[in-house]
Amino acid sequence: xxxxxxxKTLNLVKELDAFPKVPESYVETSASRGTVSLLAFAxxxxxxxxxxxxxxxxxxxxxxxxxxxxxxxxxxxxxITVAMRCQYVGADVLDLAETMVxxxxxxxxxxxxxDLSPLQRQWHRILQLTQNRLQEEHSLQDIIFKSAIKxxxxxxxxxxxxxxxxxxxxxxxxxxxxxxxxxxxHITVGKAIPHPRGHAHLAALVSHETYNFSHRIDHLSFGExxxxxxxxxxxxxxxxxxxxxxxxxxxTIVPTKLRTYRISSDTHQFAVTERERVIDHATGSHGVSGIxxxxxxxxxxxxxxxxxxxxxxxxxxxxxxxxxxxxxxxILHGIAEFIVDIICCRFKLGVYKSTPAPVHNGDTDNHxxxxxxxxxx
Length: 377
Fold this sequence. Notes:
This protein has 5 helices and 15 strands. The chain has helices at residues 2-15, 31-56, 118-136, 140-147, 311-346, and strands spanning 58-66, 73-82, 89-95, 100-102, 107-112, 169-179, 183-189, 192-195, 198-201, 215-222, 236-238, 245-259, 264-278, 290-297, 300-308. The radius of gyration is 41 Å and the shape is elongated. Mean pLDDT is 79; it is low at 349-353 and 367-377.
């Protein structure tokens, strides 16, 4: 009984087979169809290989949520060179809560030469070209996120030439930990002196002629230090046109969680607006000469995750490519064959010409007698 039921099931499956079974004697081959088949097969192979490379590649997924972390500290990574001697300048942070963080907590003042060596100038030029491309093509940021590894470095290389002149600039580098609120990191004349009502700088002991806030920002970032990441202000160079000049950078910081196959880090991205002006109290341009970076922290947090195309999606796309090319080439070949058949076969010369009339040769023509039927009454 079981064998009989199995045979009935097999017969039922055979009857439900929807695919046509065409005998080989009914199949007609031609050179055009063979050529189209070869072209279709070549296109299938090419697109399959390209789709495989797309499947191997990864893409960055961006998700947004409210930042609920208010108690942690914000790390500021600084590497700025100012065209003044170290004893003339001071750097510190004053946040919105009137909390002052002096440079002695993590910044180093290093006397250097402001002009770069040939190797350093080449590195700086490449960094500026990279920044210009990042502003034009924002998708390059995804490539930087993918390739960022902790062993990589984007720091300014050391000088390869010997110091032929005394240092005329000050390199301020290191990091500071501040409260996670809006604040102002600034570099101005004189060392900072904290007092109960704020803070001040000893600028009276510095001559006006020595003011020169031409500067170069080799690195500025917030959060965990990732040497492989290129930040917005990296490579910025400003040359002061006057002794009393103020440079302002208005920065909006966005907390970012970076999750790639290589690293997992909590860092920050930021956008910046620049402004510079000459301090002249006689014309109403008030202020203090120096470099001021006013930052504010966004309430939104971005999670950047490197993801991969699922295998099932790759197989579905592959089936769509193969089936689409197979169907499309069959339809196009049928249409082309129909048009060629109409043009070349049905409109041949003489197909629709009328048959010529018979020629009469005088008396020799044979006339077919016509029979008439006479009816008698």
